[in-house]
Design brief:
- The complex is a heterodimer of chains A (435) and B (259).
- Chain A contains ten helices and 19 strands.
- Chain A is an alpha/beta fold and 435 residues long.
- Chain A folds into two domains: 269 residues, no CATH class; 53 residues, no CATH class.
- The two termini of chain A are 38 Å apart.
- The mean pLDDT of chain A is 94.
- With 259 residues, chain B is an alpha/beta fold.
- Chain B has nine helices and ten strands.
- Classes of the chains: A alpha/beta (435), B alpha/beta (259).
- At the A-B interface, helix 8 and helix 9 of A face helix 2 and helix 3 of B.
Chain lengths: 435, 259
């Protein structure tokens, strides 16, 4: 049996949605074109996870209308904990599918920095968005879900940092989900021009018990020559979602992308994070932490592809699996022919907290060039009873000892997140999930 | 005065009996040394008293001032006043030595009566200086990448910070050079007093040159086969263990591989 993959929306629907969101005309055509391809394209095939029975196409409604926020003070309490309400000058908040709050400092605006919702961006910065939107990063016709995303995109943000501009303070984006009927087809496009630098941090915060919707999220990070992009994310999507999240990076010469991802969803999730090191001497550092609980099924692909000479990649993934959750960690270092003197290193570790939890660390090196260095380490195991014995012999309770071991295990990634509030949130989410 | 009493202790690991009836009584203000060749059950005794998950007590008792230690969880044993300096301390990544020590101290105190940060740091600095430990060892992850000698010092640091009633030191001297041995001994001697009792397990007389024991015991075949004063250790140093084996008619002193 295969799930019905027919999409209920017609070309007319996507065009009228585009018009309603006041998008540029090219975006309406782009959507219609993508929609026409959905039917023929195959589903993605994440290694070692069968998704043919997962529902990625049916959802209660394409968009829900929700309130905007006149100020950050109006955010619900859980959201305010993530945001420094008085200090954060550069923030975009999306409330379900509604662009709900935007603030960007005059200083950054004067330097030409752009941060705005994706609909407005398609109109006001049409040339820029058109140049980068699903062109160099994720392509519409990669598979059914990318085409579906392109057709139904219903939120997201565009960030642009001009040449030589260094954005010192992190830009923050909050995707607040509090309507169980809402689906998230968010698109994040971050473009950093030559010799620029920016730190972007996003939070997915879902406050409903159980969602009825889908999440089909695409992020594209384009780092120009000599640019640096630090991308932090904490995803906390509620149980009930089926989530496909694709975060893609492309580097220019001498540029660098750093990912620090806290993937804390409570739903079934396919996460794909691929960076193409195109420019010579570019590099990528990819850090991910994952906690699975309940009956969650998750698949995390972390891949760095070396095209340029002297490119350098480091993948570090740590995951904790409890209850009956299962997770596949695919770590892929791919060195293309001609990417001389590249270096691909990866480490994946999974800690199991229960007998019924499943974890699979799957390190893959695909090397088509001679003069390179590469290495991988992977392990799957339980909490070491001798570690617990040691800690408990000093008077620490079993629960606290286990908490210390888990925190220590996840610390290398957690400590990398660039905003204190977000780091704190991730720590708290981890506490909650492993309790 | 507090008393730790071990009576007729039998211990198995994976179905193999290692301890075959150990009797030993230790009071505070006393230092006991257990000596004996490899494989006679010394470390098993230490681990079993603390509650190592692999060891199964098949019969006998361990009590601390009459309280049944064997009924307690490992952390409760620590709260009752027991401490084991381990031969192979675990490494815990991501948890700093200082954070760990503070958690351990606070775990033994009532909620709301946690040690103040200032007091903790002052005390930690003082003890680390006495043990000639680098300052950065407080902020390094617990035992991670520590040399053998650093781990042993760190065990003694924990001992000094936690101030238990009874400490069991499992081969605290193994792998230490003479300078490190002197420092570790200094730490242990600092603890000596009315409120502290100690059971040292060692192969070597050398440790006893720096920490004079009140009582010396010899273990063979999973039992204490001979007890005496410090002079017993000296005799062992001069004559080895063969005379005891002869005296007791023992051919093979071991009980099998120690874990």
């Amino acid at each position: 049996m295969t799930v019905e993959t027919k999409v209920a929306l017609t070309e007319q629907d996507v065009r009228s949605y585009s018009a309603k969101m006041n998008e540029a005309d090219w975006m309406a055509d782009f959507r219609a074109d993508a929609l026409a391809r959905v039917e023929q394209l195959p589903m993605p095939t994440p290694d070692k996870t069968k998704i043919d029975k997962w529902n990625f196409t049916e959802f209660p409604s394409h968009t829900v209308e929700t309130a905007v926020f006149a100020s950050l003070e109006e955010l619900p309490e859980e959201a305010r904990e993530l945001v420094d309400v008085t200090q954060q000058k550069n923030i975009y908040v999306q409330h379900n599918n509604t662009p709900a709050f935007l603030s960007l400092s005059e200083e950054l605006k004067a330097q030409g920095v752009i941060m705005t919702d994706i609909f407005t961006a398609s109109r006001e910065h049409g040339d820029l968005v058109k140049k980068y939107y699903m062109t160099d990063g994720v392509k519409v016709n990669e598979h059914k879900l990318t085409a579906l995303h392109a057709a139904l995109m219903n939120g997201g943000v565009f960030v642009y940092v001009p040449k030589n501009v260094v954005v010192e303070e992190p830009l923050q984006v909050l995707f607040l989900h509090d309507d169980a009927q809402a689906s998230l087809f968010n698109h994040v496009l971050v473009v950093a021009e030559t010799s620029s630098s920016v730190t972007y941090v996003e939070n997915y915060l879902s406050t409903v018990e159980e969602s009825k919707g889908l999440a089909n999220i695409v992020t594209e990070v384009i780092a120009g020559d000599n640019a640096k992009v630090v991308y932090g994310a904490v995803d906390v999507l509620a149980d009930g979602f089926t989530t496909y999240v694709n975060r893609r990076g492309v580097t220019g010469r001498d540029s660098r992308i750093e990912w620090a991802l806290g993937l804390m969803n409570d739903c079934d999730t396919i996460s794909e994070n691929i960076t193409h090191l195109v420019g010579d001497n570019s590099s990528c550092d990819l850090k991910t932490v994952v906690v699975g609980r309940g009956k969650q099924r998750q698949n995390f692909t972390s891949e760095i592809v070396h095209w340029g000479l002297d490119t350098d990649a480091f993948i570090l993934k740590h995951g904790v699996m409890k209850d009956e959750s299962s997770a596949i960690f695919n770590g892929i270092g791919k060195i293309e022919k001609g990417a001389t003197r590249s270096n691909a290193v990866q480490e994946s570790r999974i800690l199991m907290l229960s007998e019924k939890a499943r974890g699979d660390a799957n390190p893959i090196l695909l090397i088509d060039e001679d003069d390179v260095t590469a290495g991988h380490a992977a392990s799957v195991g339980n909490v070491d009873p001798l570690q617990l014995f040691y800690l408990m012999s000093r008077g620490i309770s079993e629960k606290e000892a286990q908490r210390l071991v888990i925190h220590g295990f996840l610390a290398p990634v957690v400590s990398k997140l660039p905003i204190e509030g977000v780091k704190k949130q991730l720590t708290e989410v981890i506490e909650r999930k492993v309790r | 005065m507090a008393t730790l009493e071990i009576k007729g202790l039998h211990v198995e690991i994976e179905g193999k009996e290692i301890l075959k009836g150990v009797d030993l009584t230790i009071n505070t203000n006393e230092i006991h040394a257990i000596m004996g060749p490899n494989g006679t059950g010394k470390s098993t005794l230490a681990q079993a008293i603390m509650g190592h998950p692999k060891y199964e007590i098949t019969s006998g008792s361990v009590t601390l001032d009459g309280e049944d230690v064997l009924e307690m969880e490992v952390d409760e044993r620590a709260h009752a006043g027991l401490f084991l300096a381990m031969q192979y301390p675990s490494e815990i990544t991501g948890v700093t030595n200082a954070d760990f020590l503070r958690s351990a101290i606070n775990a033994q105190r009532e909620e709301g009566d946690e040690i103040s940060l200032m007091k903790f740091i002052r005390e930690l600095d003082g003890k680390m200086e006495l043990l000639e430990m680098d300052e950065d060892m407080a902020t390094r992850y617990l035992n991670e990448g520590f040399s053998g000698g650093e781990k042993k010092r760190n065990e003694i640091l924990q001992l000094m910070m936690l101030k238990p009633k009874f400490a069991i030191l499992d081969e605290i001297d193994s792998g230490l050079d003479i300078d490190a041995l002197k420092i570790v001994s200094k730490g242990i001697n600092e603890m000596r007093g009315e409120n502290f009792g100690c059971l040292m397990i060692t192969h070597y007389q050398r440790l006893l040159d720096y920490i004079t024991p009140d009582h010396v015991h010899v273990m063979m075949q999973g039992k204490v086969v001979k007890s005496g004063g410090p002079e017993l250790a000296e005799k062992l140093e001069e004559q080895g263990y063969d005379w005891i084996k002869e005296e007791l008619g023992i051919e093979d002193e071991t009980v099998g591989q120690e874990v």
